Amino acid sequence: MKVAVLDIKGKDTGRKAELSDSVFAIEPNNHAVYLDVKQYLAHQRQGTHKAKERGEIAGSTRKIKKQKGTGTARAGSIKSPIFRGGGRIFGPRPKDYTQKLNKNVKRLARKSALTIKSKENAIVVLEDFSFDAPKTKDFIEVLKSLGLENKKSLFVLGDSNNSVYLSSRNLERSEVVTNSELSTYKILNANNIVLLEGSLEGIEATLNK
């Protein structure tokens, strides 16, 4: 599949980029996509939630009133969960939310996501570019030229480029990643994917292993 290569002004350079059918034109596997997105979201959780139980509360352990004759329920410790300031019953404990997923399934999920975007005509191939210095307004001009100013966009670079990354960092709707950082969630979360020419070879090499 051939796609026109645009420059940062949004104009056709006259060149064509070849998008591999084995990556951008497969039969999407929705279950693989679901598993990969679920794993990504699970890995965003820190799992550091914790509440103190009665054995961890600082307080006296003496019996607070006599066992019988008070007319109320018996009580043995001020740290009991039924008292204000006592421990919590079945409170949250630290937990590891990481999930294991086969590498082949992850590759299939990313190829499926790229195919979905390709069918939606939401993939743009852009010639490699850089800025002399990080400036958000320069990146905004690129977005305007491509008609992506008010859309969620994901720019995929071949190699890390600090000036481009820093120029986009303050923009809520735009994200810049390298081809090695590309994930199924990020692909599907964006309205448009902008692939720089230098990223194509790396994406296809990674996903066709």
UniProtKB/TrEMBL annotation:
Keywords, alphabetical: Ribonucleoprotein, Ribosomal protein, RNA-binding, rRNA-binding
* Chloroplast among keywords: no
Q: Which GO terms describe its cellular component?
A: ribonucleoprotein complex; ribosome
Please provide the Gene Ontology terms (biological process) for this protein: translation
Residues covered by region (Disordered): 48-77
Q: Which N-terminal stretch is annotated as signal sequence?
A: none
Q: Which InterPro entries match?
A: Ribosomal_uL4, Ribosomal_uL4-like, Ribosomal_uL4_dom_sf
Pfam families with a match to the protein in the record: Ribosomal_L4
Q: One GO MF term, please?
A: structural constituent of ribosome
Functional note: Forms part of the polypeptide exit tunnel.
UniProt lists the family membership as follows: Belongs to the universal ribosomal protein uL4 family.
Q: How does it assemble?
A: Part of the 50S ribosomal subunit.
Name of this protein: Large ribosomal subunit protein uL4
